[in-house]
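User: My collaborator sent over this chain with a note saying "see what the structure looks like." That's all I know about it. Can you take a look?
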Amino acid sequence: MSKYLSAILLSIAILLAIIMPAFALAVPSTNFYEKNGEIFDDWDVCRTNAAGKDGFFQVSKTGFYPVILSESLDGNADNAYHIGQQFAKDYPDIQQRAERIFTFVRDKVKYTSDADQFDFKEFAQNADELATTIEDKGFASGDCEDYAILLAVMYKGAALRSAIVLAPNHAAALVYLPEYKRANRALSVDGESGWVWAEATGGNNPLGWMPERFMGAKLEVYEVENKAITAVGQHGKSRTTVAPSEGSTGIHISPFFGVLALMWLLPLFRRRR
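Assistant: Without extra context I'll predict from the sequence alone. Here is the result:
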């Protein structure tokens, strides 16, 4: 084998070693099954529909219940809740704690529509799925309900009262901070003032900023309860995969290893001229 061929093969091996881990990071979740064109999870919660008794928010004419929160609370508490607990340890002042959690979610989640990310018009992620992706990749992608779900669970883990609020075609989180003075609108829930709007979908939004278009709108609010639901498993159900399309086929090469590969390849071209 010529030294040129050996060098070429070694360069290819280096490139493969760089590229393959990027694909490994895009492992799809298989804890779902399909029924009547909708996607359900291990808790029999429909991830592709917010309405009805199976929907992730169980929206009905009489109100809503964000059941998906219970996949990450109490006996199901995992990454998102525990991250909130760590914020409570790191920030004894509750206002600073609430701001730091808000900033964490705002900066770590990239707004991406469900259609762009999952090829579904609607697909809700639970708090632990988002938190795990952030831990693994440094960021996650989601839309308004995903931000709200993660914030609500993290605030609960941080020993703060939280809520999910539904506005027309939108979801956000609320956090109870009766002494907070930086909000642009004072909010009351069931006659109790001190609730602060947490709108993390904008990259520059501060905690407490409420979009003007929702100030006169009809809002539905559910205060988070720290309770879990029981996973039912998928016995007799055919599993399906749900994989984010964003970045799943991209090749991410570390600049250092990219330069290293070029150092191997360039001398070959010089010698052939």
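A starting point for your reply to your collaborator: The domain at 29-223 is CATH 3.10.620 (C8orf32 fold).
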